[in-house]
Amino acid sequence: MPNSSSMTVFLLLESADTQDLQLLHFWLFLGIYLAALLGNSLIITAVACDHCLHTPMYFFLLNLALLDLGTISTTVPKSMANSLWDTRAISHPGCAAQVFLFTFLISAEYFLLTVMAYDRYVAICKPLHYGTLLGSRACVHMAAAAWGSGILHAVLHTANTFSLPLCQGNAVDQFFCEVPQILKLSCSDAYLREVGVLVVSACLTFGCFVFIVLSYGQIFRAVLRIPSEQGRHKAFSTCLPHLAVASLFVSTGLFAYLKPPSISSPSLELVLAVLYSVVPPAMNPLIYSMRNHEIKGALRKLMTGYFQKQ
């Protein structure tokens, strides 16, 4: 019985039936990819260069932008290349690398969103203790914990998944390699081990989700008690973007991984995969910059300084 290491190539989901639709898929993904690269690079540059943004909230936002760049760069370029060259193939090492990197980056991003919820909770509900609880060393430790947890999570899933025997061919019903799609190729009596790991991960994910919900419940209670309308508006302007990002990320990801098999279909899984792997990295910079005057101010200063040098 062959296992995954005996396969030299996997076949990803075909983007379209005709060459014109494949080219449309290529240009659509290229536009989204360039928007994600530009938006996240601007946020990273603004936070790194503007000393006014050297605060815990923007330090975590910089980490989020780095993770978003990594996530979309793991999946989209290969799909674009396959559409352009009219192929579906991805090598076994390439597929394993995609599973590892995507699992690592998406897990680290989720843990980081949980940390960002804690940051907003302390800033609004315990402002007098903000400097103590979220000093520079504590912020570095929390960010490192998010990245490190993502790596451990990815190692566990990748090693477990690619050690399973595969009996259902090599066609992956997705535009990139991910754990649930590889599990569909495994033997029915062998995949339960990885399903157990997925259940543990789902419990951890749900625990983080509950923490985010409870944190924002306390935050909104505190914000509504702020007497001035300007103070409430400022508090909401820093919290709502993070809540929007976390809600989109969590809702689509949980539904994609935990939906019942009875409503599963290739088109639905493709749409959900795009929503949790492609849309957030492209939308996050826009969501954070639209309601954040400090980010917009830093970007204006960067642009003004750049054009003055020309």
Write up what this structure looks like.
It contains 11 helices and 2 strands; from the N terminus they run βααβααααααααα. 36% of the residues are buried. It is an all-alpha fold. Strands 1-2 form a two-stranded antiparallel ribbon. The longest helix has 34 residues.
Helix content estimate: over 70%
Mean pLDDT figure: 83
Query: What's the β-strand tally?
Result: 2
The general outline is globular
Strand order of the largest sheet: 1-2
What proportion strand?
under 5%
Overview in brief:
With 310 residues, the protein is an all-alpha fold. 75% of the residues lie in helices and 2% in strands.
In terms of topology, how is this protein built?
Elements: E1 9-11, H1 19-49, H2 56-85, E2 89-91, H3 92-125, H4 130-133, H5 136-161, H6 179-183, H7 192-224, H8 229-258, H9 266-277, H10 279-290, H11 293-309
Antiparallel strand pairs: 1-2
Helix pairs in contact: 1-2, 1-10, 1-11, 2-3, 2-10, 3-5, 3-7, 3-8, 5-7, 7-8, 8-9, 8-10
Give a quick set of tags describing it.
globular, 11 helices, single chain, 2% strand, mainly alpha, 75% helix, 310 residues
